[in-house]
Amino acid sequence: MSEEKRCWLDPEDVTPRKGSIYPAPFDAPVAGREKRALGDALGLTQFGVNLVTLPPGAWSSQRHWHANEDEFVYVVEGEVTLVTDAGEQILGPGMAAGFPAGRPDGHHLINRTKTPVIYLEVGTRAAVEQAQYSDIDMKARKDGGTFVFTHKNGDPYP
Amino acid sequence: MSEEKRCWLDPEDVTPRKGSIYPAPFDAPVAGREKRALGDALGLTQFGVNLVTLPPGAWSSQRHWHANEDEFVYVVEGEVTLVTDAGEQILGPGMAAGFPAGRPDGHHLINRTKTPVIYLEVGTRAAVEQAQYSDIDMKARKDGGTFVFTHKNGDPYP
Questions:
Q1: What is the rounded distance in angstroms from the CA atom of residue B158 to the CA atom of residue B155?
Q2: A130 touches chain B (CB under 8 A)
Q3: Mean pLDDT of all residues in chain B?
Q4: ipTM score of the complex?
Q5: Cα A107 to chain center, whole Å?
């Protein structure tokens, strides 16, 4: 079977990408995060699926919510702290979380333990999208390309 | 936090639905399959996420492919046999598979072991969809509602 048509994989064979594209200093808490883009590797385009490893202390992202894209998380290994407007909740292996598009409740995951956390994340791929950040002066917008990050008033980051 | 806005869950708390809506006799190999609709329980609408248990001998579905919906599978527990036009491939815990919309290669999963298999499946929710079945005289179509199954020539099943 040609590589192009292979429909299965072992995530170990997918090269992870590390860190984030946030402007400094917002990239720092996310710097240790590693994402393996399983969906892309399998040729999927309608939603993204990443296998994410958070080393001790790392965050999944800055706390945010999406206007147009549903998001889903399934914990594979370790215990991770989910932070939302409602507070904190520890999610262990086999537990799941979901964030419907447009629900204005910022969320992110933090590894407060001493061992790595591994989780699967799924998100719809909308061509046009906005993300709002709950705790920092940042917002993001994409319009067919990649996200552009600005201050909340629209001023660009350097 | 109200039940409506809870954004996390333990799949153990989601009631599974058993079996399939295929016409007989095509429902028989799938009769033991249990699906927990995690995405629905979390309020997601753009894609479905199910945690599926296949007891020994059970199939995920009849072998099929979708015209409009991407599909993704991640094995949580056990070893499952993936069947496609290319043959058979065993997928163990942590392995993944993906089936891009419109790729005409029918696929399904069979538990040929003596212990349950558990996997996560993700599929886009298209309003209009067609499914083609590789090994049997059946096709399916939905147009805003649920799937309707017919013979390949369009004649209804009783």
A1: 9
A2: no
A3: 95
A4: 0.95
A5: 10
